[in-house]
Write a structure and sequence with these properties.
Blueprint: H1 3-23, H2 29-33, H3 36-59, H4 63-66, H5 72-84, H6 91-128
Length: 132
């Protein structure tokens, strides 16, 4: 997987985190617990984030060490949890994740995306200058 592909996946993960958090914006925990459509939307975003994390970890060994501020194993674990218990979602877990964890994750992914972009640009610059 190229640096450009990794960059796209990191950006998509960030988008999904921001989107999931926006689904609950202005909503109380009680409102969320009564809104299965929003619960499903948040769960699907978490599945997307976890799947992307799984792909990156598989295809970019060491990405978890390169970006330790992102809790990679927890992201993939959350995906597993969402897909295996989809018809019995833990609304407290969904709420807590979307409300408390996703804003920090979005910020960490933004930082990782910027860092990855700089590395990719440096590699491209070295390649175009005849360096490897």
């Amino acid at each position: 997987m190229s640096g450009r592909d990794s960059l796209k996946i990191l950006a998509k993960m960030q988008e999904a985190a921001i989107r999931a958090n926006s689904f609950i914006e202005g909503m109380s925990r009680a409102e969320f617990s009564k809104d299965p459509k929003t619960q499903d939307a948040v769960a699907m975003s978490l599945i997307h984030i976890g799947e992307a994390a799984s792909v990156l970890m598989r295809q970019q060994p060491g990405i978890d060490a390169a970006y330790p501020q992102i809790r990679w194993r927890e992201l993939t674990g959350m995906r597993e949890r969402m897909t295996q218990s989809h018809y019995n979602l833990d609304t407290d877990l969904l709420w807590n994740t979307a409300h408390d964890a996703l804003p920090a994750l979005a910020a960490a992914l933004a930082s990782a995306t910027r860092s990855s972009m700089q590395v990719t640009q440096a590699q491209n610059s070295n390649t175009s200058n005849g360096k490897s």
